[in-house]
Design goal:
By secondary structure, the protein is α+β, with helices and mostly antiparallel strands. A four-stranded antiparallel β-sheet has the order 1-2-3-4. The radius of gyration is 26 Å and the shape is elongated.
């Protein structure tokens, strides 16, 4: 091999090394920025939580009920926000490594569509539970009639309401119904 061929190979290797180093630096900066955003998101949600608890606690008849409801809702917002943020970070990192993210996004869309059709009742229950808690329609300790069954509300989650009737039988109702 001639000296010119060796120079060409070395030059190409240097370009590859420089591009790799630049990509790693960009990924590191991206992770640092995402970490800072998660800290800011957590601080903002904490402030929002304290504000909402303070604003709604005065109108509550049961002490602490507003705090539980607000903490539940801010927890959901935290989970969704962080999940979306880190999903985007991973996609951008893959892009920086030279991977084509188009097929990944298409696959995620198809998988999301399939899961959406398969989990329709679960999503219906979760959305209904979210609004049930948000709107404070029923609380733990209330006496309620759900689907023709009356009793004491023992638990409320995003998916279900647990009711105990007069005969001490526990009934679990999905929030979608």
């Amino acid at each position: 091999m001639t000296a010119q061929a060796w120079d060409s190979i070395i030059e190409k290797l240097l370009i590859i090394g420089i591009n790799t180093a630049q990509g790693l630096v960009r990924i590191a900066l991206l992770i640092v920025v995402a970490y800072i955003i998660t800290k800011l998101l957590r601080a903002a949600l904490n402030r929002l939580e304290h504000f909402l608890v303070y604003a709604t606690e005065r109108t509550e008849t049961i002490s602490g009920a507003a705090g539980k409801r607000v903490r539940t809702l801010t927890g959901v917002l935290w989970t969704v926000g962080c999940g979306l943020l880190w999903f985007v970070v991973v996609l951008v990192a893959f892009s920086q490594m030279g991977l084509n993210i188009g097929p990944i996004l298409a696959g995620a869309g198809v998988a999301g569509l399939a899961v959406g059709f398969g989990a329709q009742s679960l999503v219906k229950d979760l959305v209904s539970g979210f609004f049930l808690i948000l709107e404070n329609q029923i609380r733990i300790g209330d006496v309620a009639i759900i689907n023709g069954t009356g009793g004491l509300v023992e638990a409320i989650t995003f998916r279900t309401v647990v009711l105990r009737d007069n005969a001490a039988v526990v009934h679990v109702f999905p929030n979608g119904s």
